[in-house]
Amino acid sequence: MDRLSALLNLFQPEARNVSQTSLYQAPITVAKNESSHLYLVKSGRLQLSSGQETRQCQCGDLIWIPKGDAHQLTELRQPDTDLNQQPPALVTKIEILFLHREPNQELNLLQSTLPHLLFLPASENQESSLKPLVELMFQEAGQQRCGHTTVVNRLAEVLLVNLLRHLMANQKVSTGVLGGLSDLRLARAMTGIHDTPGENWTLEELANTAGMSRTAFSKRFREVVGFTPADYLAQWRMSIACKKISSGSESVATLADELGYQSETAFRRAFRKVTGHPPGFYKKGVAFSEIKEEMAEAAT
């Protein structure tokens, strides 16, 4: 596959609650949560406050808060000006949910390794492939036409994919999974892991795939992605395992073989090491007593 498809297939970003909101009457205040929040500034000026960071934004800017950090958007208005003198701050807000959320949000290797805030100024958006999508989103979000919800949700997901493409192509994110995929050499090794997680990947094989020496590859991978290659492989495998276990699509024994483990016992130990839980924790409809039994077995 390409650099992004495996990530999107596994973590399945889903847009919800797309709406156009004016900040003239009241600010937007969002408490910390598990969603990702994307804002498109349609008009006016506003101030974003998130954690220790404060940023002034204007018409055409794009704001992405990937990890669900608490934040507030407040209109910036000159004293004694009315709407005829200064247009209201209008934003299209988009909430995005990913497959892996609590209790193991860190298994979403895309969302968990992104920066807390990403900002694209209007000047950059105007020169990128994002421009027509942003304009269409403004148009659709501001009108309650037939099929409104379906259109804006799907359009928001297309916008997110194009935003990820833009960030990678222009190397806007230097660390984490997206940072690794922005580095063409590391991306070759990461894509190999994504496409064939059951392969018996060694450091030498991954380094050869990247076209680097083992030492240089290992150092560069750790610096950029934030994991050793072996830890990243284990994280990726367990992200797949969690998804399939929770959906009930495959047994633990089948998964162990599919993901490259010598035995079901080895898989269970690796699973618990990465997630902190036995596989039964993720099964739908499993009684707590059964989970306790699995935890006792894993401890022996």
Automatic annotation (TrEMBL):
It comes from the Bacteria. Residues 187-285 form the HTH araC/xylS-type domain. One of its GO terms (molecular function) is sequence-specific DNA binding. Pfam families: Cupin_6, HTH_18. Keywords: DNA-binding, Transcription, Transcription regulation. SMART domains: HTH_ARAC (SM00342). PANTHER family: ARAC FAMILY TRANSCRIPTIONAL REGULATOR, HTH-TYPE TRANSCRIPTIONAL ACTIVATOR RHAS-RELATED. This is HTH araC/xylS-type domain-containing protein. It comes from Oceanospirillum linum.
